């Protein structure tokens, strides 16, 4: 459960993906076991701690910031924040 909790805090991955990554057969099983061990459902646990999500320079959750950096900077060369903010604004203007 510790790994699942870490993933719930550090990513925006759906609970079904987190469940599978942590060895559960499906999200329902994950939710049942999580509730037995932690005392609340995974979604409520995650919502209650949403403010604790670490953020990168852009104020986004860390996984999103890293994803944007990798997309625009695959060689991991430092990008100036102004350029990254402009790239982010472009991405937000065109939903996938």
Short description, anyone?
With 96 residues, this protein is mainly alpha-helical.
CATH superfamily of the largest domain: Homeodomain-like
Count the E strands.
0
SSE series: HHHHHH
Overall pLDDT? 74
Could you name the CATH topology of the largest domain?
Arc Repressor Mutant, subunit A
**CATH architecture annotation of the largest domain:** Orthogonal Bundle
What gap, in angstroms, lies between the N and C termini?
Answer: 32 Å
Helical region count?
6
Helix content: 55-70%
Top CATH class of the largest domain: Mainly Alpha
Shape: elongated
Our Rg estimate from Cα atoms comes to 16 Å
How are the SSEs placed, and which strands pair?
Elements: H1 2-10, H2 15-21, H3 27-38, H4 42-48, H5 62-72, H6 81-93
């Amino acid at each position: 459960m510790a790994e699942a909790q870490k993933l719930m805090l550090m990513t925006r991955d759906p609970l079904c993906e987190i469940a599978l990554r942590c060895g559960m057969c499906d999200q329902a099983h994950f939710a049942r076991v999580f509730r037995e061990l932690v005392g609340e459902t995974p979604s409520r646990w995650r919502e209650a701690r949403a403010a604790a999500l670490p953020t990168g320079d852009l104020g986004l959750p860390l996984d999103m910031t890293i994803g944007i950096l990798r997309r625009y900077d695959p060689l991991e060369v430092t990008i100036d924040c102004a350029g990254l903010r402009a790239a982010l604004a472009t991405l937000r203007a065109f939903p996938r």
